[in-house]
UniProtKB/TrEMBL annotation:
Coiled-coil segments on the chain, per record: none
Membrane-spanning residues: none
Domain DOD-type homing endonuclease positions: 12-171
A biological-process GO annotation: intein-mediated protein splicing
SUPFAM superfamilies assigned to the protein according to its UniProt record, in alphabetical order: Homing endonucleases
Entry-linked Pfam families: LAGLIDADG_3 (PF14528)
Official protein name in the record: DOD-type homing endonuclease domain-containing protein
InterPro entries the UniProt entry points to: Homing_endonucl (IPR027434), INTEIN (IPR006142), Intein_endonuc_central (IPR004042), LAGLIDADG_dom (IPR004860)
Alphabetized GO MF terms: endonuclease activity
């Protein structure tokens, strides 16, 4: 029982670590991946094809009205048992999920990159900050120009594992642990990669398969800044020249 330990599988593991949930009770086995409804193109055009390629099983993405998310579910003992054998738990995983051992054991940078892409495409963020201080131009004080890539997780093992992968790939990052007011949720483990050099390194070596996140980079690349609090629909309009980017400030 099993599937090939491939770079594609490494990306699936990153996706599952970010937005996945697995059930395995009473003879019912299900792997569920879902996210924000505006990420539908990411699911339809990338995740579905990736999962079908690795697991050789026809799946379809759909809208889940009960939780207002979009994603896909895969039923079957073989797939779920295989993912469980890689270290993914059944049930709640947020506090204990970690990077599967086969990714580290591969010593293959492509496995590292694909896991990180899957994780950041689902659970990471990219935004652009305004800069304060006398040394900055008025433009940089009023426009969101400074790039920040980040990830916030509860799981300490995942937090530590991601740092190992980023270090192996020569990324510069900052790691922080913030206690939460609600101690039942555990601490917030946060990783930040700031600045143009980090972002261009990410785009060149890892990239985004999620069009929603990629759109932020494309706007920044085109205009030198990306307005905050925009929807994916608005960002597509900006890229299509149907919406004035300055109107969003």
């Amino acid at each position: 029982m099993g599937f090939e330990l491939s770079a594609d599988l490494a990306e699936i593991c990153g996706i599952h670590a970010g937005d996945g949930y697995m059930r395995g009770r009473g003879g019912h086995y299900e792997l569920d991946i879902s996210g924000h409804v505006e990420e539908r193109p990411y699911y339809d055009e990338h995740i579905v094809l990736l999962f079908q390629r690795v697991f050789e099983k026809e799946i379809r993405a759909k809208y889940f009205p009960s939780r207002n998310t979009y994603g896909c579910s895969i039923c079957g003992k073989k797939i779920c048992s295989f993912m469980h054998s890689l270290g993914f738990p059944f049930g709640a995983k947020s506090a204990i999920v970690e990077i599967p051992k086969f990714i580290f054991d591969s010593h293959d940078p492509e496995f590292y990159k694909r896991f990180l892409r899957g994780l950041f495409d689902t659970d990471g963020f990219i935004h652009f900050k305004r800069q304060k201080g006398e040394s900055y131009s008025e433009y940089r004080k009023t426009h969101n120009c400074y790039p920040v890539l980040g990830l916030s997780v509860i799981s300490k093992p995942l937090f530590e594992g991601v740092q190992k992968l980023l270090s192996a790939l020569n990324f510069n990052y900052q790691a922080y642990i913030f206690p939460r007011r609600n101690t039942n949720w555990g601490a917030d483990h946060r990783i930040l990669m700031s600045g143009t050099e980090n972002l261009l390194h990410w785009i060149k070596d890892i990239g985004f398969a999620n069009p929603s996140k990629l759109s932020r980079f494309l706007i920044w690349s085109e205009y030198g800044h990306c307005p905050p609090y925009t929807t994916y629909a608005q960002r597509k309009q900006i890229l299509d020249k149907a919406l004035d980017v300055e109107s969003l400030y």
